[in-house]
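Replying to the earlier thread about multi-chain prediction with a worked example.

Input:
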Amino acid sequence: MGNTPRATRRYSARSPLVGYLLRRLGTSVLLLFGVTIVTFALANLVPGDPIAAALGEGAASNPATVEAYIKERGLDQPLPVQYVNYISGLFQGDMGISLRTAQPVASDLSKAVPATVEIALLAIVVSLGVGVALGSLAAYRRGKISDQLVRVFSLIGLSIPTFWMALVSFNFFFLQLRIAPGSGRLSPALAPPPTVTGFYTVDALLAGQWVTFTDALAHLMLPVFVLSLFTIGLLTRFVRTSVLEVLDADYVRAGRAKGLSGPRLLFGYVLRGASLPILTIVGLAFGTLLSGTVLVEAVFAWPGLGSYAYNSATSLDLPGVMGVGLVVGVVYLTINFAVDLLYGVLDPRVRLA
Amino acid sequence: MRKRWLKIPAAWITPLGVIGAVIAVAWVGIAFTARLWVPFDPLAQDLPRLQAPGIDTLMGTDALGRDIFSRLMTGAGVTIPLALMLVVMSLLVGTLIGAIAGYFGKWVDELLMRLTDLVMAFPTVILAMVVAAALGPSLFNAVIAAFVVSWPQYARMTRSIVLGLRTQNYVMAGRLMGFSPFKTLRVDIAPNVVGPILVLASLDVGTAILLLSGLSFLGLGAQPPTPEWGSMISAAIQNFDSWWIGLFPGLAILTVVMAFNFVGDSLRDIFDPTSQVSRAGARS
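Result:
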């Protein structure tokens, strides 16, 4: 290495990160194709009769109609050709027609995505805040009564069926106590704010509609609370473990020896060291949140991906279900890719390994 | 050697583990005997409809005039055995695939691990929902769908353990003595896999119950009139005012899942005191 020209050396000092990012991007793109193969295979290859489902019992009993449908959709062509058609359709935003709404799945979903992302983002922020607080507390008081309590609490959080919790809390806080607003994203009297981001809270703020903002926020509270219980349990446990691992580290002891304590030690030293494993688990937590919305949104009549999935599943609308699977798969992959990116940027060991 | 297994070391007895074990055993007992002692036929629709909990009907009746207590108890016999079966199935298939991938390496490993990547590229409930919807709604298909999403974690964990052990001297010694690959896996490697996999499996029972009841809640699992907890909760959406319809089945799910999680978490402390950061322990 001694006689390598200077320019090459500079390049090689930077390349590990670039190489790492490219490798990650490569895997993500491959997985993306994998995801489309899965949805394609499930939509086309499984037993059951997608044609009868798409046409309805009556039309499916007419051979001419069935043949026309097969021709039109290209179902008489070899599978690889069908797959290529499917992919090129996807690139043009064609995810099929929903059997339930009779609208293109893609346009249905594009309306639903912002509503779900708004819930998921808020839930992740809440879970991170509570999870980091509880997890650090448990680690600081390892073995004490508060540690045990946090452990039981987080295990219970992981055991709650979210769809049930949604039902019970809606019943209790809205129907009985009347302190929570009803279902949906806004009270019926209010008009949605002009669309900029699709998040009602942000859009209302941008438009300066204070009443709409507080109303939208109030409608978010209960779904976010229900969704967060599981992820709070998840994050608390991981934060506790990660904090325990760095609590005995030399640099934390050095910080203590310098006379640091309280928040400065916790945020400046402990959590900074523990942030990487926590970051990893945030990606996973996002997956559980997306899963959770499917089971929770329907109860709150929240017009997002989850309700769409619920309604498609209960009415056996296969194109709708596949669309949700595809979109969620892509969103989840993107988030994990972003987490990996951050990871590589934050931790030199990852990109050098 | 055999006798040692019967004695439970004192360190295993933790309050959390004991509470969990007692509740779990009680529910399993209910699951297998409920049909013999429930006060009403869980399918009979001959009681007054939407009756609030009282002395006759402990947990009230549903919109069709069926006794919720009887349905709840027999419902344990639907969900719990299926969840246990599902976990055993995923465990067997997952560990086998993981062991093969880890031991043989090269393209076998590459192929099998990309397969697990593919499954794990989806959040679990979403993929299970998609698979169950494609197969058609039935309890059997829901179990298949749940199986599709739950074997990879066992494969991943087994593979990583096998990979770490493969080049250990004592394993090499066995191979030099002429052990076949499967004898090596069974004699030298399997004992190291059992502990972590058992921990994973006990935590997974809870996940399996949540997943199966969730699919039934979506209408993709148990079909009426099967007394399944998830579908009982989904029936409550149509009757918001009758709080008892949904409340009790949910409490049933909560207590069973909690019990298995308590047991699993206590087992983890025993088998795996150092690393509690396993990704597999916390799943969506």
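Chain B has one domain: 18-276.

Feel free to reuse this layout for your own posts.
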